[in-house]
Amino acid sequence: MPDPTLQGGFDLAFAEQAAFLRNKLDLPTETWQDLLHGAHDRAFVVAGATKADLLADLHAAVQKAIDDGTSLKKFRKDFRAIVAKHGWVDFTGSGTPGGFAWRTKVIYETNLRTSYAAGRYAQLTDPDFLAARPYWRYVHSDSVMHPRPLHQAWHGKVIRADDPWWQTHYPPNGWGCKCRVHALAPDQLGKYGKDAPDAAPHDGDTTWTDRNGNAITVPRGIDPGWAYAPGASLARELREIAGQKVARLPPPLGKSLAKDLISPAPAARVFKPQKTAAAAADWAVRNDLADFADYGGVKPEVANAWNQSLFEHLQEFPELRKKQKFVGTCQAQFSRWRALEIEKYLLRLKTANPGISESVLRAHAERIVKRKTVKASTWAHSWAQNDVSGVCVNQKWGKDVAAFENALKENVLANFHPPGCDSIRSVVDHEFGHQLDDLLGLHIDDAVRMAYNDARSLGIENEVSGYAKANIKEFIAECWAESLNNPAPRSFAQRIAGIVRARYSARFPRV
Fold it and tell me: Most CB contacts within 10 A, which of 32, 196, 298, 440?
């Protein structure tokens, strides 16, 4: 199934998604508070749009965006023409250019995200599919710079699909929320280190007052108006509409579409480079390469090199997937780590100090959990920290491809890195050498230690590289990188690569 990205275009809609929006009734409203929760399954609204013909044209523009995969830029062009046609001058609340950009983005993203969520809900709750995959895994995908703490806390929770928790927590769970759900079969629990599904978290409630003075209670972590599962009230109806579409198609096409209707998007079988770093981050998560990705501030070439190495390593060594909690920049990885640590510390403080306000406790937690920084000389690193483990690039180098590649070439010419390891891709491969070492315990393997001692006795800086002299771990990573990047890998690179594959096959035999 297509999983839309919001960085400049969407895949074409699938049947249930398109049907969800198409079958809504246009409902004039003055503010977003006029219609809440599951009522959105039946009504198309744009706050402040009170004229029927205006609303009909806006509905058609949003439907076009979903059906055709229209970009936000194109939607804004259509939107501008519609408001001019109807003389709708107060659509932003301020009439400023910034207000226009903000309002059109909210309308565009909200409708595409909720229609996608509704379509997926219809697919995931199909009786046959649900019987095969009875668990749903919450996947947090909000901005690293402005994460929602509870959405972060829910990340990775695997909860039964029929648990009432999903009635209020099925994403999106707020304005701009990008969280989503993955369906799992019972035999997939082990992939995420679980023997059984998790208990649904209960984080308490919060109350807000609408414009009419009514008190409305929603679970903590859910934005007002979002405590519902988009499409839940229409799931069966959407499946029937999709089924009718199948019946009208020629048999070969209908059979293919019917299969798609009940199956989630498989992970990509071939690597696909993306045009932007943001799209590369989305592709990595969408294709199950990592739990979370953020390539903010780096060039697409760098993000694609990272994704390709990650993709190919997971194809050959799928057991590495368990450690890919984060891929992207070192800076974003450290930022995410700190945000998670602050929430953990805050929870302990709240338990121990029930009488102190959360704002005071949070300020204390933020002082205690210090920020981590990346050395300017560091190109990349592999971090094994439980919550954000993974291979990341230093944003400083990732944003300047020419400087990055020139530095790599100079290092190879100086014999500091092996021949062939003068590409950005070789840097990622080096870090995956460390990950394979961590997975297989290569640095304490007798055969590896013997190879390391042999290389040292022969002059390791010439047999492998100057960096390999640092220690046995760097020796392993340098040999692994050379084995993948030197067209004619030398003896120690071949020797270590052979040991890596032999040890992996022995420990994780393919069924």
Answer: 298
